[in-house]
Amino acid sequence: MWGSPAAGGGPADRGAALIALLDPLYRDHPHWADEQVRLRGMLDAAAEARAYDLRTLDRDRAGDPRWFGTPDMIGYSFYVDRFARNLSGLQLRLGWLNRLGVRLLHPLPMTLPQAGDSDGGFAVADYRAVDPRLGSVDDVRAIARDLHERGMALAMDCVLNHCARDHAWAQAALAGDADKRGYFRIVAQAEEVAAWEAGLDEVFPDTAPGNFTHEPALGGWVWTTFYPFQWDLDWSNPAVFREMLDVLLFWANVGVDVFRLDSAPYLWKRQGTASRNLPETHRLVAALRAGLDAVAPGVALLAEAIEQTREVLPYLEPADGSRACQIAYHNGAMAALWTALATGDAAPLVTVLDQTRLARADTAWLTYLRCHDDIIWTALRGIVPEAVLRDCSAFFAGAGSYAQGRSFQARADAPVATVGMLASLLGGEGAATLARYRLMLGVLLALPGMPMLYMGDEIGLPNDEAGAAALDARWLHRPAMDWTRAEAAANDDGPGASFLRITRALIAARAGSPAFAAAAPARAEVTADGVLAIDRGDVLVLANFHDAARPIDRGGGRVDMLTCAPAGETIPAYGILWLARD
Ligand code: GLC
């Protein structure tokens, strides 16, 4: 009845592609006919409201669909309050980011969180309001405009899977509103909870075991994958889809360029499965994309799917060819970089890169060394033996090593995750730490993708011990920016200076070389001498994860772009070379 997804485009059929994607999911729902009318009206209103400057960006990006994949596109993730107190402060700090070479800002959740512990803002009490301690929606609009004028972009979290218990929908459900009860998954019987739990994993086994929370006012249990105050939304209800798409359209029209789809794997639930990465979830993501295409086609979607690589690919390049997310966290490559450092063996990284070549013209990986979350080792299951992953986990928690990270959440059936600031994971300070920093960042920036840094790592900030006292140990690696250290480092002084010099030099070298575009060729191998070689066409990157020098084959490269010195016959321990080919 509604035609094929390809039918979208003109105002008359603005909703057609979206509705064709959703129809198989919702055709048996009693409100589906009404919801279609509402969806169409919503798309028309949002398209009408889209500002001229944002339409211009959409048009420019239509001709450059991988606009986020240029070599100078470096992301920076941070909590606004910890970086700059609030959004006005952020505006004043844009100079720091510019000087670093950052072009994409990812402030972690800025929306109104629930009072008290809010899981770092991921328990959202109002999706359309900014936390007043940070500023207002108008402040976000002003920052987006400022960034666009500088050729920069803004990413924003969209917490799709759950809202806060404080959110008006949850409060209405608690008060007995039948319509809003339908926004959540409420289970009346303990046996039913047990039946669901049998198939499910636990995200926070130490601090929030189980996936359901008893709520007497609801007459049962509500599904809470994460913390008990984060209520999972029921995406089998088309009203939930409509509400969340409306949130995306609202922020797209404020000027957001990239939406980070938080906890994307968990949207659709089906008994007898792990209720993660189900085909219905992929379809929902493709439908969100179709909704944005009808209004704000230049806005990209970033999948936060911290899963094994084969489970992440469908978010970027679904087998049926539909357009879904444009960017996804490359947690496989991230974990493989750390295993290479712990074991000296970069072969798993080569395997991961081989398995994650992208075919579309509008997709790229988000590459990173760490983020606000923990390093999860299970991404490499099936590629690296479980015992090695456990050893890596112990290594970075400091077992007989230089690393100063910590274990996070005791998972009996999986290698324990790791937390810690980048410098601390690499040994803290000193020449060996700096060499490892240069190596890890040098390889990261050579991978095909869009790199994202985490605030403070550029000046080697150490673990935040006070933060670690929190119930959730991820605060160990979410410190406040140390501006005294940063400003000294900018004057080439103090403990942050060498980190900053290395960071700026690597970013600047990358930005100036088309070989590092996300789309440019990338072939990796480990040489017979155990050196990682990443061939980026005009640049050959060689990296030594061993603690002794190794012989190299220069492969036609002569001068190291990073030092401007001619390459020799060997690469030092923890060395990295970016050899330019003539
Ligand atoms: C995502 C966030 C993480 C948060 C979780 C629940 O994984 O990155 O910080 O705890 O979602 O919202």
Description:
- It is a single chain.
- The chain is an alpha/beta fold and about 575 residues long.
- Helix content is about 35%, strand content about 15%.
- The strands form 7 sheets. It has an 8-stranded parallel beta barrel with strand order 1-2-5-11-12-13-14-17, surrounded by 4 helices. A 5-stranded antiparallel β-sheet has the order 18-19-20-24-22.
- About 50% of the residues are buried.
- Residues about 1-10 have low confidence and may be disordered.
- Bound molecules: alpha-D-glucopyranose (GLC).
- The site of alpha-D-glucopyranose has 10 residues, from loops.
- Alpha-D-glucopyranose binds near residues 226, 262, 304, 372 and 373.
Structural class, from helix and strand content? alpha/beta
Could you name the ranges where pLDDT drops below 50 across 5 or more consecutive residues?
1-9
Biggest sheet statistics: 8 strands, parallel, barrel
Number of strands: 24
What are the distinct ligands in this entry? alpha-D-glucopyranose
Termini gap:
58 Å
Helical proportion?
Answer: 25-40%
Kindly state the mean pLDDT as a whole number? 95
The main sheet orders its strands as: 1-2-5-11-12-13-14-17
- The percent range for strand residues is 15-25%
Overall 3D geometry? globular
Instruction: Please give the count of helices.
Output: 20
What Rg is obtained from the alpha carbons, in whole angstroms? 24 Å
